[in-house]
Write a structure and sequence with these properties.
The chain is built from four helices and five strands. With 136 residues, the chain is an alpha+beta fold. It folds into two domains: 47 residues, no CATH class; 67 residues. Strand 1 and strand 2 form a beta hairpin. The longest helix is centred in the last third of the chain and has 25 residues. The radius of gyration is 17 Å and the shape is elongated. The relative contact order is 0.15. The mean pLDDT is 87.
């Protein structure tokens, strides 16, 4: 039996995106990032981390478990309402508040702006994938 493919999950500790496999002890769409899984293992032991989050390397801390900047920007753009982003065929840009509302190209977003927009985009991505799974 082969392991299921990895998927986008939301870290249940910090809310940042991570790649992993769903563990039965987590709500659908949630897992743990490598950093917080390791902190739990260091603080409470590997057995506790296993019971909370599943197996390291299978459910969390898997190869390629972090998102690139481009992947984060793609998620943010996908889940920004069409009234708040550039249209098709245009350079990808979204409305951001910078001393007033500005249409900012995705490549010009700061790390702080990405961190602010990403949790919403991730929650919408989980909803999208859950909905697609129930329809199939």
């Amino acid at each position: 039996m082969s392991a299921s493919p990895t998927r986008t999950l939301v870290c249940c500790v910090c809310g940042q995106p991570t790649r992993g496999r769903q563990h039965w002890n987590r709500d659908a769409g949630y897992g743990v990032c490598a950093e917080h899984g390791q902190q739990t293992a260091d603080r409470e032991g590997e057995a506790v981390a296993l019971s909370y989050y599943g197996e390291r390397g299978i459910h969390w801390d898997v190869e390629g478990s972090t998102f690139s900047r481009e992947q984060k920007l793609t998620l943010i753009f996908r889940h920004t309402h069409r009234d708040y982003k550039s249209g098709k065929g245009a350079d990808r840009a979204i409305l951001i508040f910078r001393n007033g509302t500005s249409l900012v190209p995705l490549d010009a977003l700061t790390d702080e702006e990405i961190a602010k927009e990403l949790p919403y985009a991730l929650s919408k991505e989980v909803e999208r994938k859950t909905k697609a799974k129930t329809l199939s």
